[in-house]
């Protein structure tokens, strides 16, 4: 697929994340205005509420003046496709309909959480990540849990802790116990980490008690975001047996402000990797289930002039697709809601520079990484800013997500004091 030329000149440059091929959806405001829906072309934000008000675009019902994308998602796949087609026609090179009243500089926009998160489930779908973590904690011979090659493993997280890119994250307090300590202590996490992930957003609900096929699940997905599942590795390590992550994951999850639609990513589909063991039939998928999306993580210490790219990987490094995860989520009768967010799990490639967490990059803290500043990191320090980026690369254009960034601030002392 080649670049679709736009009347917005900045959308035609090869380095923009936002050509006419993309048309992601988000929620923005400017000073003195209420949040409403937008898309973006190059360095211009497009006010969808303005275009909707006089019928230049039509989703079948008024949806774009709302401060969240949920009303638009609830219109369903036919409306999603219709609005995308209308926007591509309206902003094509040479299109005659006036649009200047709906355009503003992207730089003046304040971005908000793009949708109301109904529920949040995080998976564990990268085999290399699972192997790395399992090797560190259980040894190479027992790295993968016995169910891993048969089932998309996940846990239910906290929708209330999902925040938009640019939101600062407080270092959490909690119980932690080192291997050489006899009893746990309480205080700020000492092993703060990130997890480079993608998030899939459910746009069509399913009723409780109704399982769905993987191919049906594919049609329920509205789009994707970059996702940073901030993790406290010491709190997590102490609490996780026998029920899994809890406080070590509950304090913050950052997502990118733009939702890139499934339609925009369609040209970049790639197959899931070969199955090492046959999956049960309910997890069979007809379409290639993954996307060729280049991903990277930048770490910028407080006071540093620039960031260091510490990881480069790709979304295709997953073992299970988002549709397989969604089908598995619903197979036991769990009803899915509009705005459900499914995290992919940390995405790690085969080489060390493609690991998606500091836990892996520093191998549990034993091999600190060196930044461009000369500083070293095993885990995140206060003031560090972490930025996730991702883009699918076409012929002379890119379909990107923008940035998903967050900064770690010092923990807030509680009335109990630290131990």
Mean model confidence by pLDDT: 96
Distance N to C terminus: 59 Å
Extract low-pLDDT stretches: none
Question: Can you tell me the CATH class of the largest domain?
Answer: Alpha Beta
Radius of gyration: 21 Å
Q: In this structure, how is the largest beta sheet organized?
A: 8 strands, mixed
Number of helices: 9
Approximate helicity band:
10-25%
Tell me the CATH superfamily of the largest domain: Fumarylacetoacetase-like, C-terminal domain
Architecture of the largest domain, CATH level 2? Alpha-Beta Complex
Q: Output the structural class.
A: alpha+beta
Rough shape? globular
Keywords: Calcium, Hydrolase, Magnesium, Metal-binding, Phenylalanine catabolism, Plasmid, Tyrosine catabolism
Binding site for substrate: 124, 138, 236, 240, 346
Enzyme class: hydrolase
Pathway: Amino-acid degradation; L-phenylalanine degradation; acetoacetate and fumarate from L-phenylalanine: step 6/6
What does this protein look like?
The chain is of the alpha+beta class. It has two domains: 9-112, Fumarylacetoacetase, N-terminal domain (SH3 type barrels, Roll), CATH 2.30.30.230; 120-409, Fumarylacetoacetate hydrolase, domain 2 (Alpha-Beta Complex). The protein is built from nine helices and 26 strands. The chain has helices spanning 48-53, 70-73, 77-90, 127-138, 214-220, 233-239, 262-265, 322-331, 358-361; strands at 26-29, 36-41, 44-47, 103-105, 110-112, 120-123, 154-156, 162-164, 169-170, 173-176, 185-188, 192-193, 196-202, 221-228, 231-232, 253-255, 260-261, 269-270, 290-291, 294-300, 308-314, 341-343, 369-370, 376-377, 385-393, 398-409. The strands form seven sheets. Strands 6, 7, 8, 13, 14, 16, 17 and 22 form an eight-stranded mixed sheet that branches. The protein has a five-stranded antiparallel sheet with strand order 4-3-2-1-5. Strands 9-26-25-20-21 form a five-stranded mixed sheet, with no helix packed on it. Strand 20 (294-300) and strand 21 (308-314) form a beta hairpin. Helix 5 (214-220) packs across helix 8. The longest helix has 14 residues, at 77-90. The N and C termini lie far apart (59 Å). The mean pLDDT is 96. Pathway: Amino-acid degradation; L-phenylalanine degradation; acetoacetate and fumarate from L-phenylalanine: step 6/6. This is fumarylacetoacetase. One of its GO terms (biological process) is L-phenylalanine catabolic process.
């Amino acid at each position: 697929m080649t670049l679709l030329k736009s009347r917005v000149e900045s959308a035609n440059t090869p380095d923009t994340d936002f050509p006419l091929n993309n048309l992601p959806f988000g929620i923005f405001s400017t000073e003195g205005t209420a949040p409403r829906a937008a898309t973006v072309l190059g360095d211009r934000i497009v006010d969808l509420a303005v275009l909707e008000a006089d019928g230049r675009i039509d989703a079948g019902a008024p949806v774009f003046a709302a401060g969240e994308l949920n009303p638009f998602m609830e219109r369903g796949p036919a409306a999603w496709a219709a609005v995308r087609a209308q926007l591509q026609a309206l902003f094509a090179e040479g299109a005659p309909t006036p649009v200047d009243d709906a355009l503003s500089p992207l730089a003046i926009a304040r971005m908000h959480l793009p949708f109301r998160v109904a529920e949040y489930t995080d998976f564990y779908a990268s085999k290399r990540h699972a192997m790395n973590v399992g090797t560190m904690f259980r040894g190479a011979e027992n790295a993968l849990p016995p169910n891993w090659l048969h089932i998309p493993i996940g846990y239910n997280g906290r929708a209330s802790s999902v925040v938009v890119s640019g939101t600062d994250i407080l270092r959490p307090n909690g119980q932690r116990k080192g291997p050489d300590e006899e009893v746990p202590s309480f205080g700020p996490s000492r092993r703060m980490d990130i997890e480079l992930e993608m998030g899939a957003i459910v746009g069509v609900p399913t009723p409780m008690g109704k399982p769905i096929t993987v191919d049906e699940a594919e049609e329920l997905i509205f789009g994707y975001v970059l996702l940073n599942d901030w993790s406290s590795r010491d709190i997590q390590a102490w609490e996780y047996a026998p029920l899994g992550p809890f406080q070590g994951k509950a304090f913050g999850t950052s997502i990118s402000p733009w939702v890139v639609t499934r339609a925009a990513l369609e040209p970049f589909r790639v197959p899931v990797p070969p199955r090492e063991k046959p999956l049960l039939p309910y997890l069979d998928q007809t379409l290639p289930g993954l996307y060729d999306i280049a991903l990277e993580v930048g770490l910028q210490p407080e006071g540093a002039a620039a960031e260091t790219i510490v990881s480069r990987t790709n979304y295709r490094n997953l073992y299970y697709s988002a549709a397989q995860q969604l089908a598995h989520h619903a197979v036991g009768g769990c009803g899915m809601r509009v705005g459900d967010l499914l995290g992919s799990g940390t995405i790690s490639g085969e080489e060390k520079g493609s690991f998606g967490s500091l836990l892996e990059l520093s191998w549990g803290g034993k091999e600190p990484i060196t930044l461009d500043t000369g500083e070293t990191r095993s885990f995140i320090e206060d003031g560090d800013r972490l930025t996730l980026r991702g883009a699918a690369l076409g012929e002379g254009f890119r379909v990107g997500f923008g940035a998903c960034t967050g900064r770690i601030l010092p923990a807030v002392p509680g009335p109990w004091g630290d131990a």
